[in-house]
From TrEMBL:
Presence of the UniProt keyword Disulfide bond in the record: no
Ranges annotated as spanning the membrane: none
Family from the record: Belongs to the SAM hydrolase / SAM-dependent halogenase family.
All copies of domain S-adenosyl-l-methionine hydroxide adenosyltransferase N-terminal, residue ranges: 22-167
Protein name from the UniProt record: SAM-dependent chlorinase/fluorinase
Domain (S-adenosyl-l-methionine hydroxide adenosyltransferase C-terminal): residue spans on this chain: 192-280
Lineage: Bacteria, Bacillati, Actinomycetota, Actinomycetes, Streptosporangiales
Length: 285
């Protein structure tokens, strides 16, 4: 993900106190009691800590979507402990880790979920495997580490536990990372990919507004968009409402990335663009 400056200043992880914040991002949904159970565990350990729910509607097992949401939200979250639980490998061989970055601690599976947010926070300073079962909730369910491992560890860190007490240190270069979405300028065009699709069907690209500016493109222009063998023209505007309902539009989203949308519609469905799909954008001819 494009890096972003972290707001709120930095402080040493050892000084995290009961006035700190814990954030939660999961694919648990809102129809069951899973999220409430995580809140309850944290409240039982660190009752004065504020808990912020980032998102619990990440598509099931979609590590990439979870990584994108966390990375693009982290600049606006207070310094604290950030829990990610999009974990299709729960109960398997994957490690559970705590990663220090930019005065924050990220807790979750070592499956790449945390990697873009860690990078957006300035990069990993240290990492620890969550192996000291003394700090877990018992008995530990092999399929619910969010409740039994990640939530209690987060609460104990805010209550004064040192990250170094969680388990052995993991070399940061051995942490699992997701490939960074990229954009490439060549041949009078910029090539990229769909980073994620939000709940409205908007398709966010790895292509930035700066990439289009480098091609001489500004809002008000028309883009030439190539999707495999398909080619179409699309207006480049500031908002969805700049085009009539039902019409396609390209715009720079709140992360500074180009997104395709349909005013009052679903661009991902209209265009058949899943995450990872390749896109080429050029001036319209």
């Amino acid at each position: 993900m494009p890096s972003a400056a972290v707001h709120g200043g930095l402080r040493d992880v050892q000084s995290l106190s009961v006035t700190s914040v814990i954030t939660l991002l999961t694919d648990y949904g809102l129809e069951d009691g899973y999220v409430a159970a995580c809140h309850g565990v944290i409240a039982g350990i660190a009752p004065d800590v504020r808990v912020i729910d980032v998102c619990h509607l990440v598509p099931s097992g979609d590590v990439r979507r979870g990584a994108a949401i966390l990375a693009q939200t982290i600049p606006y979250l207070p310094v604290g402990v950030h829990v990610g639980a999009v974990d299709p490998g729960a109960g398997g061989a994957r490690r559970a880790v705590a990663v220090e970055a930019g005065g924050r601690v990220f807790i979750g599976p070592d499956n790449g979920l945390l990697s873009w947010a860690v990078r957006a926070s300035g990069g990993a300073r240290a990492a620890y495997e969550l192996s000291n079962a003394e700090h877990f909730l018992h008995p530990v369910s092999p399929t619910f580490h969010g409740r039994d491992v990640f939530a209690p560890v987060a609460g104990r860190l805010c209550a004064g536990l040192s990250a170094g007490e969680l388990g052995p240190e993991v070399p940061v270069e051995r942490l699992v990372t997701l490939p960074e979405p990229t954009s490439v300028l060549r041949g009078g065009a910029v090539e990229g990919e769909v980073v994620s699709v939000d709940g409205y069907g908007n398709t966010q690209l790895s292509i930035s507004a700066g990439d289009l500016a480098a091609l001489g493109l500004r809002t008000g222009d028309t883009l030439g968009v190539s999707l495999g063998r398909r080619r179409l023209s699309m207006p480049y505007r500031e908002t969805y409402a700049a085009v009539p309902p039902g019409e396609l539009v390209a715009f720079a989203d709140s992360a500074g990335l180009i997104a395709f949308a349909v005013n009052c519609g679903d661009a991902a469905q209209r265009l058949g663009l899943p995450p990872g799909a390749r896109v080429r954008v050029s001036p319209s001819v």
